[in-house]
Amino acid sequence: MSSIDTLVNTIIRPDVRAIAGYHVADASGFIKLDAMENPYHLPHHLREELGRRLTDVALNRYPTASYAGIKQRVRDTLGIPAGYDVMLGNGSDELISILCMACATQDRRAVVLAPTPSFVMYQRSAQFAGMDYVGVPLQADLTLDLPAMLAAIAEHKPALVFLSYPNNPTGNLFAEDDIVAIIRALDGFGLAVVDEAYEPFAQQTFMHRLPEFDNLVVMRTVSKLGLAGIRLGYMSAAPQLLAECDKVRPPYNINVLTQAAAEFAFDHVEVLNQQAAALRAARADLMAALAALPGVEVFPSAANFILIRVPNSDDAHLKLLSHKVLIKNVSKMHTVLTNCLRITVSTPEENSAFLDAFAASLAS
Ligand code: PMP
C-alpha cells in the first residue's frame, strides 16, 4: 500500500470511506429525465436582460451579508407569515446539512428520523454530522405508516424529522393530518422539517401553518422551479431558531452571481410559474399514457416526476439507456420500490420520445 493510501485510511473516517459518493450520472447526449430539472430555459429576452445585469455584479467583493434583496422577494413570493424569518442555503442540500450540524450533540448522539424511502441527503447529512438516523418504512401503498412513525418518535426522541412533501422518490403527498400528528408528537424536543422542494407541482404547503407550531420548519428551493443551476434553497421558521442555525451557516454561502440571478428570477416569477403549470399538464398526459401500457403500474404524483412499477426495472432501465434516455432506477433503494423507476416530467417532445423508447423496450 502506498503512503497516501495509508494516510487516507488513517485520517478519513471509516464510515465515510465505506460509502459510495452521491452519484450523478453522465448525461451528455441523453434525454435527461433523471434529476427532476425543469426542461425549460428562461425566455431569450430575459436571459439577455439577466446577462446585462450580471455585467454589473462586483465579482471582486464578497456578497452583502444580509441578502436582504433575495429574502424580501422570497417573503413576498412565498407568503411567509409576519414574524417568521428566512434563511438561505446553497441549495436546500446545504440547509439540510446546517440543520443537522446545529442539532448534533456531543454527549449523546442526536437522532434524525424520516420515512424511508425518501430523499437520501437526510440520512447522509445526519451521518456526516455524527447523528444517528432512523428510517421508518412507508407502507406498501407508499403512504406514511403513522403508528410506526409515532412509535419511533416516542422511542428515539429525534431532534429532527424530515418530511418530503411531496416525497422523493415516490411522488405522493403524505396526508396533511398525519404530518400534523407528527409535528405535535415532536413538541418540546424535536423539529419537523417539511421539505417542499416540489411545491410548484403540488401547490400544497405548510407555510401558512408556521404560526401554529413552534417546532415547524418549512423548506423550499428554486431548483425544481427552473433554476437548479444557481443553487438556492431557503427555509422559514421562528426567528429564534433560525438565528441559532445561522451561526452554523458558512459566511457568504450565496455567491454574488446567484444573488443577482435569483433576484432577477423572482422579479419574473410568473414565467417560472407558467412553466410549472405546463409541466403539471404534461404530467397528467404522461401518467395517462404510461397507465395505458400493459404491465405498468403508475403511482399517484404531486411532483414533477412519476414513479412506475414495471415487470423488470433493470432491464427497462438498460434498454432506455440504449435509446439514449436517462431515467432513475430506484428499485434498489428499498423493498417497497422493487422494480420501480422514476421519470422526470419534461417537454411534450421529450416525454413522447421517452414513451416511444419505453414502449419499444417493454415489447422487446
Ligand atoms: N429536497 C428534496 C426532497 C429533493 O428531492 C432535493 C433534490 N433532489 C432537494 C431537497 C435538494 O434540492 P436543492 O437543489 O435545493 O439542493
From TrEMBL:
Residues 30-357 form the Aminotransferase class I/classII large domain. It catalyses: L-histidinol phosphate + 2-oxoglutarate = 3-(imidazol-4-yl)-2-oxopropyl phosphate + L-glutamate. It holds the Pfam family Aminotran_1_2. Pathway: Amino-acid biosynthesis; L-histidine biosynthesis; L-histidine from 5-phospho-alpha-D-ribose 1-diphosphate: step 7/9. Its cofactor is pyridoxal 5'-phosphate. CDD domains: AAT_like. Keywords: Amino-acid biosynthesis, Aminotransferase, Histidine biosynthesis, Pyridoxal phosphate, Transferase. The keyword Acyltransferase does not apply. Homodimer. This is Histidinol-phosphate aminotransferase. It comes from Duganella aceris. The lineage of its organism: Bacteria, Pseudomonadati, Pseudomonadota, Betaproteobacteria, Burkholderiales.
